Amino acid sequence: MTGTGSLRPPGWTYNPSSWSERLWLIGVAVIGFFISGYLGLYQWGIIDTVWEPWFGRGSETVLHSPLSRVLPVPDAILGAMAYAIDAVAGAIGGTMRWKTMPWMVILFGLAVGPLGLVSVLLVTAQPLLLHAWCTLCLLSAVISVVMIGPAMDEVLASLQVLKRAKEQRRAVWAIFWKGEGGTAWSA
Amino acid sequence: MWAPALTSLLGVWLTAVPDVMGYGGDARLNNQVVGVWMATFGVIAMSECLRAVRRINLGLGIWLVAAPFLLEYPDERACGSMVVGIAAISLALVRTPSSERFGGGWTSLWAEAQR
How many CB atoms lie within 10 A of CB A102? Predict the structure, then answer.
């Protein structure tokens, strides 16, 4: 049985693609999916009321605001889809995926990072434009933000793979899609 | 880890304080927006590989010290803004030795090739 040592990216003290790094992220994304999906069902009118313990009619104001309907689909539905991508893209690939599947790691990073910051942007719009807060929207934003840091280390490892490939004048694009074959190379 | 975590709590406090104290105007909007982002970047900077993000909170802290003069806050709100700002600046300057290594980190991506 090989230790995790051989799975580590060169110059790293741990493996960012190990399941201990990824499983809880997937779990948190699934929770985010259900929260956001619930809010989306309310926005679609499938659910009549929305749970709001603190801010009175805040959730109703936020979830029925014009801003939430800028796109053809309610923003919480889009949020739920983003969480679904987080969970799926977080789950696909083995513990070496930082080098065997860079495109999946980077897709995961884009779904978690930039989309996570969009949810914060929506949170700042609540007091700025609507003078209202929405508890579950805030909880969903917290979940997205908590995921960002722990997801980005894996992205860094994959980008380093591509950078090294470029330095060695190898086919960066092919490695982005197909990963680096062969045996694990140690630090 | 503790410094960015505390900065996050400062951000949450900053976001909540206009409602807790019951005030409006520029101070309210500024605190709520800066507070949300300060909390966000604090949480992100808790991850060792993104510890550099604390520098954004350094900038937000400096803004909080300057904002009362630029936006002409009443005294007690000016005081609060500057106290939180100075606290955020101090916490952003805390350097914690890193226990993990990341193959040169993000800077390795735009560094020239060695050798």
Answer: 27
Indicate the number of domains in chain A: 1
Q: Which stretches within chain A are classed as H helix? A: 19-43, 58-63, 75-91, 97-100, 102-125, 135-167, 172-178
Chain A's closest residue to B47, CA to CA, is: A149
Q: For residue A10, how many other CB atoms are within 10 A of its CB?
A: 14
Q: Quick check: A100 and A93 in contact, CB under 8 A? A: yes
In a domain, B115, yes or no: no
The reply to whether A6 falls in a domain is: no
pLDDT in tens, A151-170: 999 999 999 999 999 888 88
Neighbours of B96 (CB within 10 A): 12
Kindly state the DSSP code that residue B113 receives in the 8-state scheme: P
pLDDT tier for residue A13 given thresholds of 50, 70 and 90? very high
Q: What is the pLDDT of residues A30-83, one digit of tens each?
A: 999 999 999 999 999 999 999 999 998 889 889 988 888 888 889 999 999 999
* Interface mutation vs chain B, best among A24, A118, A133, A153, most B CBs within 10 Å: A153
d(CA B21, CA A34): 34
Kindly report the CATH number assigned to the domain that includes residue A55.
Answer: 1.20.1440
Check CB contact under 8 Å for B40 and A167. no
Residue B42 lies in a domain: yes
